[in-house]
Structure formats: structure tokens, C-alpha cells
Write a structure and sequence with these properties.
By secondary structure, the protein is of the alpha+beta class. The protein is 18% helix and 27% strand.
């Protein structure tokens, strides 16, 4: 005998709705659903630099705890949209088809509040609103580098308009998401500015995490009356590094569509390609010039003469190295369609986001090669950089790392040079061989034990 609808547990009723309407063809909820590999090529975006978050529909895990009920109903019944860059659109099912789905989400999905995001009192209000204004702008966390704001386009990537936050989101979800974005959206390029609940910007609102997040929440509640943050402009900008490390995200010829530039006090700089997981350029001197001409995300170019490194995936698993290192797909005016859109995934790479050190603001990039978790941190002195790559493997594995390409000569067992760069590698790990694309390539064999381990590389500029 079939159960009547009112006797079926609410979580099962949610799953039944999602299956019946085929929501799981595009959305993930908990551990089921999502875009299948054979359909992945059909999902596109006008903001590629935002990564999968810009083209793959959002997860439905905890969506009842995430969205205000009134906003959820706007999405389901009225087709409300906050991601205009996402080319995929959800069909409209009508009230009869959706039945009580919005109410079921709200009933099933719960999150325990950690703090109350109460509005500031009259005496506290001016300081809190000034603090939010600073945090959002280019003198603070520079949120507007990747998000539109109050109907005005970001100077960089055109992410979700920040001023829809208060209308859409539940305060508890907002607080926990801001503490750890990657927990809710694995692979998101947004870093955690409050890692382990410690504020990166200790000079704003006394470095108090709860006050900073209360201030932002209050600012978003102001709607159209909120002030525009500093930096909401469209002219090219030259970014300067002062006494702490500076990180900028954007499209770049030296780091691809999901490029990240890192500048250190003292003048050393590098670029990281988050789409493929490789350190792609190093330069000395001034940091970057940022431009926003044309459509799409912002771009950056090194202000110094850069040493260009490879942009292909950096790590591969296997007992033996590949006969030829797999090269990343190239898109040009003559061939504008990406011939291999799943290139990084097919070789085991997945970007997991990054965090900033609370004292130095040095970023640590997190990504995977297969099931191996990797944390990648680079520190700099006046003319050199030390890169520590930490691994966490569930079983003993062998990884191959392509450390350098070009006209390479061996100086010693652990030192290799090009005309511009000296690279120091761990002993008994290196293989220097001809590259399929011409020149030479330096491969490192990294034998991983089960559990945690690390390796260190030294980069030194020769001129």
C-alpha cells in the first residue's frame, strides 16, 4: 500500500519533488544529483573567470536555511534571477507542479545561529557603517572587485550584486558562509577573510570578526540608500603593494581566465592559474596594472618583466611519468571553441579555494590531484621565493610535478637554471627530458606516504 503524502517524512518529500521535477539534472542536494559529465559542455557563462559557480546552477543543500522563504518563492514562482551571467535558466513549473516545495525546504533545512546579526545601536551606527564601507571597497577587502554593487557593475568580475544579500539570505547562513565560503561552494574563488573566525583586516572595527560581519549585514539592509564603496569605478588602475602581501584575482595573459596575482612587500610577485593549478609567472618590481575594458571580468598585467612559466596542469598521478605532458587547450580567434573544456578535471585537478594568513595576508591555495589534497604556499625575500607544497594522501601515492620548462641546464643534483631563473628542488627527485612542445622540461617524482607530507622549492631570479 502506498503511503499518503502527509505520512512521508519531509526530507523524503523534498527528494521526491526534486526527482519528479528533474531538478537533480542541474542541482546537487547533499550527496545526489548534479550535472553529469556528458551534459557539462552545455552549461556556459559570460563570466568564465568566476569558474563553475558562474555556469553550474547552485547547490540545493541547506537551501531552506540559506534563502528567506519569500525570496525562495520569488525564484520558484516568479523566475527571480540574480546570476545574469549564467546562460542556463531554470524552467517554470507553476504552483501546482511545485506544490509545497518552498515550505518543505524551510521545514527540513536548519542551521543553528552562532551570533545574532543585530543592527547597531544609534551610538555604534556611524562607526559600523564606516567600517562596512571600508571593508567592501578597495581600501579593505575589495569585495567590489568581483561583485556588482547596488545596480552598478564591478570594475572586475561581474559576480552577484552584493546588495541583494539581505533580501535573499538568512542571517545565520550568511554568517557561516562568510567564515568559510569553500565549505558551502567547493572550488569557489572567493577566499576566507575570516579563517578560523579570525579577521584578516585587524585594522577595521578592531579586527572583531562578529562586528565586521554585523556591519556588512547592516550595510546590505540599507538597500539603495547604502553608500558606494571606494573603488567602484571603471578606469584602469595600477595596484601597489605596501607593507603586507596583496592578492588580486582576474583574467590575465600570464595566468589564464582564473588568474590570481600575488605581490609581496619588497617587490617579488607571482601569478597563479587557479583553473589549472600552476604557478605561471614570476617578476620583480611593481605589481600589476588592472584594466576593465570591454565585457567580462577584469584583467591584470604584470608591471615588471615577467618570467613566463607553463600554464598546464602541474601534477599527475602515476608510477611512471606520461610519455608527453598533457598541454592545456588553446582558444584563438581562428578556433574560438574550447576543444577540451574538461581538461583540468580529466587530469584530476580541482580547485578548492584559498585563504589568507591573518598576519601577513600570504595566500595558501588549496586544490586536489585526484583524491590527494594539496596546500600551496609561497613566501618571498628580496630576489627569491620559497614555495612549500603540502600533501594529504589517503594512501601511498606517486605524483609527477612539472617544475620548469624551456632552455634548462643542470647545475647540480638539486639546482637547475634557465637564463632568468634558478630553481632548487629536493634531492633525488628530478628528471630532465625533452618536452613534446620543444625545449626541455624538468619533472619531479614525489613519493607520498599515507597521510601528510610536504616538499619545498626555491625560485631565485638571476636578472
Amino acid at each position: 500500500m502506498e503511503k499518503s503524502a502527509d505520512k512521508i517524512a519531509a526530507p523524503d518529500r523534498v527528494n521526491a519533488h526534486l526527482t519528479r521535477l528533474n531538478c537533480i539534472a542541474c542541482h546537487v542536494r547533499d550527496d545526489f544529483g548534479g550535472v553529469s559529465p556528458k551534459l557539462d559542455d552545455f552549461f556556459h557563462s559570460t563570466e568564465e573567470a568566476l569558474g563553475n559557480e558562474s555556469r553550474i546552477p547552485p547547490q540545493l543543500t541547506l537551501t531552506g536555511a540559506k534563502l528567506r522563504p519569500e525570496w525562495m518563492k520569488k525564484v520558484l514562482y516568479d523566475g527571480a534571477v540574480v546570476r545574469p551571467y549564467m546562460k542556463t535558466r531554470m524552467p517554470q513549473f507553476g504552483k501546482a507542479g511545485l506544490a509545497d516545495l518552498a515550505d518543505l525546504f524551510a521545514e527540513v533545512d536548519k542551521m543553528e545561529p552562532e551570533i545574532e546579526l543585530a543592527p547597531p545601536g544609534r551610538e555604534e551606527q556611524p562607526q559600523m557603517r564606516d567600517g562596512a564601507h571600508t571593508l567592501l571597497g578597495d581600501k579593505g577587502l575589495n569585495c567590489i572587485a568581483c561583485h556588482n554593487y547596488n545596480g552598478k557593475e564591478s570594475p572586475g568580475m561581474k559576480g552577484i550584486d552584493l546588495m541583494t544579500t539581505y533580501e535573499r539570505l538568512q542571517p545565520t547562513w550568511f554568517y557561516q558562509y562568510m567564515i568559510n565560503p569553500a565549505k558551502f561552494r567547493p572550488g569557489i574563488i572567493m577566499p576566507s577573510y575570516w579563517p578560523d573566525r579570525k579577521a584578516v583586516r585587524t585594522d577595521i572595527l578592531d579586527g572583531d570578526t562578529d562586528r565586521q560581519l554585523r556591519a556588512l549585514w547592516d550595510n546590505f539592509s540599507l538597500g539603495r540608500s547604502a553608500r558606494d564603496p571606494s573603488g567602484l569605478r571603471n578606469e584602469p588602475s595600477k595596484l601597489v603593494v605596501t607593507d603586507t602581501t596583496r592578492t588580486y584575482r582576474g583574467r590575465s595573459t600570464v595566468a589564464g581566465y582564473r588568474g590570481i596575482a600575488v605581490g609581496f612587500p619588497g617587490g617579488m610577485n607571482y601569478a597563479f592559474n587557479a583553473e589549472y593549478g600552476s604557478l605561471t609567472a614570476i617578476w620583480k618590481g611593481e605589481f600589476v596594472r588592472v584594466g576593465w575594458q570591454g565585457q567580462g571580468s577584469g584583467n591584470f598585467d604584470p608591471l615588471g618583466k615577467q618570467i613566463q612559466l607553463t600554464q598546464d596542469v602541474a601534477f599527475l598521478k602515476g608510477a611512471e611519468p606520461p610519455s608527453a605532458w598533457p598541454a592545456h587547450p588553446v582558444v584563438s580567434k581562428e578556433a574560438p571553441v574550447n576543444p577540451d573544456p574538461l581538461y583540468p578535471r580529466n587530469h584530476g585537478y580541482a580547485f578548492l579555494g584559498y585563504s589568507l594568513d591573518t598576519t601577513t595576508s600570504i595566500p595558501t591555495f588549496r586544490y586536489r590531484c585526484g583524491e590527494i589534497e594539496i596546500e600551496d604556499t609561497t613566501k618571498a625575500s628580496e630576489k627569491s621565493m620559497e614555495r612549500t607544497i603540502a600533501f594529504n594522501a589517503s594512501a601511498a601515492e606517486i605524483l609527477w610535478f612539472r617544475a620548469l620548462t624551456g632552455d634548462i641546464k643542470q647545475v647540480s643534483e638539486t639546482v637547475y637554471e634557465t637564463a632568468d631563473l634558478r630553481l632548487t628542488v629536493p634531492p633525488k627527485s628530478a628528471t630532465l627530458r625533452p618536452a613534446a612542445s620543444g625545449g626541455m622540461e624538468l619533472l619531479l617524482k614525489i613519493t607520498l606516504p599515507e597521510g601528510k607530507s610536504n616538499t619545498t622549492l626555491g625560485y631565485e631570479l638571476l636578472r
